[in-house]
Amino acid sequence: MQVSEVHLCADIAGWELSLDDAPAFITRGHRRKTHTEGDDVDDASEGEPFIRPSLELNMTGRRCTGYEFSKGAAHSCTIYDKTKEITVSRKDWMQAVWLSNGWDGESRVTRVEFRYKRECLKELGVEDPYTLLDQLPGLWAYSTLQWLRHTIPTDDTNRGRWECSPFWQAIQQADFFGNGTPAVRERKRVGDLRLICQMLSGCSTTAAAYLAGQLPADEDGTHFLLWFMTWQEEYLRKKRVSFGAVRDFKQTQLGVIPDAVAA
């Protein structure tokens, strides 16, 4: 048996979401793709600069009722007004849980929920369902300390020095998660590279087949690679980019450190 998906959440009273919260969210991770403003992030690692994550905003009338980060990704987060949600879901029993933990019965309750799909769990080393409970503190610490934070913005250009808001500090210290050490998320790049090379091999032989008559009959791939290099140079020139620039950008995306820099 393997763990296929995990949802972890914590509820906090008194935090009423607003549009002003958007610039207060930061994340440490690799830039991957853009949906709205900011840089959507699906990975986080120590040493990466803090950046603004992209997000999706939920509104009811003119009132902000929630934020969604990396929706549908292997690791995502949703922050929403739980008191409003239970008026629709009819999960009134949640109010008894909140009351037993000090809720005043009137303040709005905001839920912070992180979701981990199989791909992310594998990278975080979560495999065995029987040891999952012991790994929850690490998952929660990874998500709330590294992957996403709600802060008090200042003029400091280094967002890493922005202090976490009191609400987020409470989220980080959720009692039942304990004081965990952030889990390490390791991407399996070797397997990815092998798959990419297999795809390149298949595509190159197919392209060579279309070039019948333009390549030598005893072609071993050398002439095709020369043809492709010329074609790629012209293609990138029309796009006004260079191979090196695109490569460097993707190294940043993937978090790959060149050997010379690493040394």
Write the layout of secondary structure elements.
Elements: E1 5-13, E2 25-28, E3 50-51, E4 56-60, E5 63-69, E6 75-81, H1 82-89, H2 93-100, E7 109-117, H3 118-123, H4 132-147, E8 149-150, H5 166-172, H6 189-210, H7 222-238, H8 243-254, H9 259-262
Antiparallel strand pairs: 1-7, 2-3, 2-8, 4-5, 5-6, 6-7
Q: What fraction, in percent, of the residue positions are helical?
A: 25-40%
Residues in β-strands, percent: 15-25%
Order of helices and strands: EEEEEEHHEHHEHHHHH
- Biggest beta sheet attributes: 5 strands, antiparallel
Distance between the termini: 41 Å
Enumerate the spans where pLDDT stays under 50 for 5 or more consecutive residues: 29-42
Rg on CA atoms, Å: 24 Å
Q: Give the averaged pLDDT, no decimals.
A: 84
Give me the number of helical elements.
9
Q: Which structural class should the secondary elements be placed in?
A: alpha+beta
Strand order of the largest sheet: 1-7-6-5-4
* Backbone shape: elongated
Number of domains: 2
Q: Tell me the number of strands.
A: 8
